[in-house]
Design brief:
Distance between the termini: 40 Å
Strand content: 15-25%
Helix content: 25-40%
Number of helices: 18
Radius of gyration: 23 Å
């Protein structure tokens, strides 16, 4: 079946729609999908427009100018009459759809955190605002499906605001280049010979990142732990942590809950938020296409209905099942970092055996510097994970930190590593505290199948194989999120009232 991704694809709307792969990954076909009726209505019969979202660093000068004009207009609409279509298409309205400080969302005390200049308490005042505001799904089984639909309608509004019908939302490919892209760092830009403020720039970000003198630590943006998952719920949880929450906390002024990006109720006010989430959406679609039939979500993430505003400023309500794949929405992504999937483990045929939970650590306080806690891995567990030449490994391992408690959000993140007796360390993940800034869940269906909020789960098979013995250490290293940073620098920004502790750690074998 012929496809033309950059423009119009001459395929029947009821036919299977292929996934536009990369040079390394051929296109994969799926069965019939229900294409968004709003797309079908605007096209001649039998023709489907497929838009392409690119890396922000790959935009042409004209494409970048359209992006800036779109955001500038959305910011200008912040001052439109409260009950107008223009206000419903404003950046403030869309930031409030995600979350806000004020009545019916998140306590206004967060406005006193560093990096919240320009924000004020909000409150929904009409039925459309009540239906759409403060509806983000964080720490939820619908994290990926809600944000996919959110971006879809945001892109419609942005396109309308720009006056460019071909505009698409770019993604921030921080695994390929973990600097904040130059398009978001410049304070001004030249539009037709006139110098204007750059609407993509906000000052409320970590200074070294905003200056372009530092990049985010590669460990914080590596999606391989999520990509190793084989079903929706574990992937949804893993990628929400790394790289999603890590990038939010690293971009904030001084970690979470500071700066627009470092706090859920403020994040949508920073234009880079939308490119960050476009990258998460890109990684999600890449992972889905690894085994679409087995990985598509089921249950609440498909049956939930969400309300947004379309490009005309009208309220729309859709069911998530209408928007599970990019094919249904007629867009695709160019190839970028973290995709296709990178396998760090040799092929292993995992046995279908019951899960085992093996405690390896009891209650442990987290120090202001580097925390080291001795762990001992049972010989039986090590044999199943590491194996020998005669007996290959048969189990996969997840490290679970449980009972995570603190008196105040630390304002730093913690790399989690396993260290062997030879001193070698293997990072398994990062603890961030972005979700601790989110509004409380309103629906218990959001939590079905999810891990406890005070747990952190990390794919640890490769790290455990590298330990080289039964004894080792669990190591927690504070970080501000910058590449080349050190624990001592992170400690300087850490809240003195944190009192962080973990209730214990275990290995889960499957």
């Amino acid at each position: 079946m012929a496809r033309l991704w950059l423009g119009v694809a001459a395929v029947g709307l009821s036919a299977a729609i292929g996934y536009g792969g990369t040079a390394q990954t051929p296109a994969k076909k799926i069965g019939p999908v229900a294409v968004d009726p709003a797309i079908k209505a605007k096209l001649p019969p039998g023709l489907l427009l497929v838009r392409t979202r690119k890396s922000i660093n790959a935009l042409s000068a004209a494409e970048l100018a359209s992006l800036r004009r779109g955001f500038a207009q959305m910011i200008a609409w912040n001052s439109a009459p409260r009950d107008s279509a223009d206000f419903r298409r404003s950046l403030k309205f869309w930031a409030n759809i995600h979350a806000y400080f004020g009545a019916h969302c998140r306590d206004v005390s967060g406005l006193s955190n560093a990096g919240m200049s320009g924000l004020s308490a909000q409150s929904d005042s009409n039925p459309t605002e009540t239906a759409t505001w403060c509806t983000c799904k964080h720490g939820s089984n619908q994290f990926l499906t809600w944000h996919r639909m959110y971006l879809y309608y945001f892109e419609q509004v942005l396109r309308q605001a720009s006056g460019d019908s071909s505009l698409t939302l770019p993604y921030w490919d921080y695994e390929a280049d973990a600097h904040i892209p130059a398009a978001y760092r410049a304070a001004t830009w030249v539009d037709g010979g006139t110098t204007k403020p750059n609407p993509l720039f906000v000052a409320n970000r970590q200074a070294e990142l905003n200056a372009g003198t530092a990049a985010i630590d590669p460990d914080l943006v590596d999606p391989s732990g999520a990509m190793a998952q084989t079903s929706y719920l574990p992937f949804n949880s893993a990628i929400e942590g790394t790289p999603h929450g890590n990038v939010h906390c690293a971009t904030g002024v001084a970690g979470c809950p500071t700066g627009y990006m470092g706090s859920v109720p403020a994040a949508g006010n920073d234009p880079i938020f939308y490119s960050h989430h476009a990258n998460i959406d890109r990684l999600y679609e890449c992972w889905l296409q690894g085994d679409l039939a087995a990985r598509l979500p089921t249950g609440a993430p498909t049956t939930a209905s969400y309300s947004f505003v379309n490009g005309s400023g009208a309220q729309v309500t859709r069911t998530a099942s209408d928007m599970l794949t990019t094919q249904q929405l007629a867009y695709r992504y160019t190839a970028g970092g973290g995709c296709p999937i990178r396998f760090h483990l040799p092929p292993i045929v995992w046995q279908e055996v019951p899960w085992r939970r093996i405690p390896i650590l009891g209650p442990t306080p987290v120090e202001r510097g580097i925390t080291r806690a001795p762990i001992r891995l049972p010989a039986e567990m090590r044999a199943q994970i590491v194996g020998t030449a005669a007996n290959p490994p048969t189990r996969q391992a997840t490290l679970v930190l449980e009972g995570l408690r603190f008196d105040e959000i630390p304002r730093v993140m913690f790399k989690v590593a396993l260290q062997g007796k030879d001193g070698k360390q293997a990072t398994v993940g990062v603890i961030n505290f972005f979700n601790e800034t989110a509004p409380p869940h309103r629906d218990t269906n959001d939590m079905a199948g999810m891990a406890a909020p005070d747990e952190r789960r990390f794919e640890a098979t490769a790290a455990l194989r590298a330990l080289g013995g039964e004894e080792g250490q669990l190591v927690l290293i504070p970080t501000t999120g910058l590449a080349g940073g050190n624990a001592q620098a992170a400690v300087q920004t850490m809240s003195p009232r944190t009192n962080l502790r973990i209730g214990g750690a275990r290995i889960e074998l499957r």
